Amino acid sequence: MRRVACLLGLIALTVLILTSVHLDGATATLFSFLGIPALVAAMGFYVLQRWRAGAFHSTGNSRPPNS
Fold first, then answer.
1. pLDDT tens, residue by residue, 41-60
2. Which pLDDT belongs to residue 6?
3. Cα–Cα distance measured from residue 14 to residue 35, given in angstroms and rounded to the nearest whole number
4. How far is CA 15 from CA 18, 28, 42, 45, 48, in A?
5. What is the CA radius of gyration of the chain?
6. Sign of the torsion formed by the C-alpha atoms of 31, 34, 39 and 44
7. Are 65 and 54 in contact (CB under 8 A)?
8. Element (H, E) at 60
9. Could you say which of 38, 43, 52, 55 is the most buried, measured as most Cβ atoms within 10 Å of its Cβ?
């Protein structure tokens, strides 16, 4: 799941770089409809993966204790 998040993040960065090179309406629309959703999905997948790994516990520890 982390690789999918990285891939989506790279897609968002690629669209952002394309938008900064060609400042017109077409690339802005591409960034709005492809770059931002890819970035949101990447962040969501990353948080979900970290949550499954136990990073968000109420004990204050970043990892659950080893049993």
1. 999 999 998 888 878 776 65
2. 92
3. 8
4. 5, 9, 14, 19, 24
5. 16
6. positive
7. no
8. none
9. 38
Q: Domain-by-domain residue ranges, the chain?
A: 2-52
Question: Which two structure tokens, joined as six digits, stand for 27?
Answer: 């690339």
CB of 20 closer than 8 Å to CB of 57: no
Model pTM? 0.74
Closest CA to 54 of 44, 42, 66: 66
Closest alpha carbon to 3 in 52, 40, 49, 65: 49
pLDDT at 63: 60
Give residues with Cβ within 8 angstroms of 38, minimum separation 6.
8, 9, 11, 12, 15
* Cβ atoms of 36 and 11 closer than 8 Å: no
